[in-house]
Amino acid sequence: MTHFKILAGIFAALVWVSAVPAFAEDAQSTLADLRKAANIKVGEMTRTLRKELKTAIKEGGFVKAIEVCQTVAPSIAATLSEEGGMVLRRTALKVRNPGNAPDEYERKVLEKFVADFAAGKEIKKVQHAKTEEADGGRVFRFMRAIPTGKVCLNCHGDNIKDDVKAQLDKLYPEDQATGFKAGELRGAFSFSKKL
Fold it and tell me: How far apart are CA 72 and CA 155, in angstroms?
């Protein structure tokens, strides 16, 4: 009977040890699945916003595009957030809308993105994901860099037309989001989900 208990104990230990790597792989695949889901939502946001901006520019130029960024973009983010049980938003180190200012986590990641860009990483591929303890539970956080496209320079560059500048001054008196060059880090999409 004693040998049976010893063998049973050894067997149980072997089962437990062999299960540890599988658990670690499951944890990694969960993070990978969450990252994939976040990228899908960010992709939806990007495509929808781009379509709305193209339509606005066609109808009323870049003054009309400002309206899309001011009202439509937050609405798109809110809709996608409700569908996925998460929070999706845009943020930056130099914000146009003070409501988009980064939290401490986002600021650190954005600063890392700036360093990554300075080190030669392609800004379109720069992203960051992790899970952390927050608000009494685990939270998945994900950020993906937003590069400054050539069309973005019409509202975020150095040489902004007078009518666009006047509209920006009217809507955003504390605007910090100008002076960008094509290809620079404009900001990031930020995604968080309670687990």
Answer: 16
pTM: 0.79
Q: Which two tokens stand for residue 87?
A: 């929070």
Strand ranges inside 20-126, DSSP E: 87-91
Instruction: Kindly give the confidence (pLDDT) of every residue in the chain, 195 residues in length, as a single tens digit, with 9 standing for 90 and above.
Output: 444 443 334 333 333 333 333 323 334 558 888 899 899 999 999 999 999 999 999 999 999 999 999 999 999 999 888 877 789 999 999 999 999 999 999 999 999 999 999 999 888 789 999 988 887 888 899 999 999 999 999 999 999 999 999 999 999 999 999 999 999 999 999 999 988
For residue 105, which phi and psi values (nearest 5 degrees)? Answer: -60, -50
Alpha carbon distance 100, 29 (integer Å): 31
d(CA 91, CA 96): 9
Q: Where are the alpha helices (DSSP H) in 68-190?
A: 73-84, 104-118, 153-156, 162-171
